[in-house]
Amino acid sequence: MKARELMTPDPALVTPSDSLQRVSQLMLEHDCGCLPVVSAADQRSVVGVVTDRDIAVRGVAEGRPPSTPIGEIMTPNPDCCRADDDLEQVERVMSDRQVRRVVIVDGAGECVGIIAQADLARASRRMQEPSPKQMVDVLESISRPIAGS
User: Fold this and answer.
1) CATH number for the domain harbouring residue 17
2) Is residue 98 part of a domain?
3) pTM, entire model
């Protein structure tokens, strides 16, 4: 199965200048915990991602105001997968980087979708491929604590 077959297409996007408050509102509106950050409102070139955890840890916990530009707390230069990549590649990125979501880009590096850990689990149930054991192994490797933390 290819990433394009499982991804959520055309996710909500934010720019580095969007505020913490605006990004939080978009997460609520779109019922998601991760948004791709693109270079400009009229472009889809991925420059980062921001998660609900980023907002909590790098924003709220540090006492940043709601007007803080998301570019100050986003994770820059995320590992992305291409829409034509096999799911094994998406799983590998999630496992190696220990992330629960991967931005999907086209050949020009522009955001076309996003795949979450939950999407992999739903696909496994639907198709029985990969096997439930393989899915457990992938989910376990994504959630493995980082040594020393």
Assistant:
1) 3.10.580.10
2) yes
3) 0.82
